[in-house]
Specification:
Order of helices and strands: HHH
Low-confidence stretches: none
Number of helices: 3
Number of strands: 0
Distance between the termini: 33 Å
Radius of gyration: 20 Å
Structural class: mainly alpha
Length: 77
């Protein structure tokens, strides 16, 4: 019969597939946030006629939001 300490160690084993999945998920999160920012910036510039400013602003906002999402996921909140 296992005691309480042995049961808690099961989740702390190194699993390379889990590490690859976490890294891939973080990369896809960042890529999708930046992509949505670029798309939104281009559409904003097309609608408002402010060519480089919407693209720059919303792509930076997408990058910041992607990094924020990854940091929150890594911290565990």
């Amino acid at each position: 019969m296992k005691n309480a300490g042995e049961q808690g160690d099961k989740g702390k084993e190194f699993n390379p597939m889990r590490s690859i999945a976490v890294a891939g998920g973080a990369g896809m999160t960042l890529l999708s946030c930046i992509g949505l920012g670029i798309w939104g910036g281009l559409k904003c510039d097309e609608y408002l006629g402010t060519y480089p400013f919407g693209l720059i602003g919303l792509s930076l906002l997408g990058a910041i939001s992607g990094l924020w999402a990854i940091i929150r996921k890594m911290i565990g909140k």
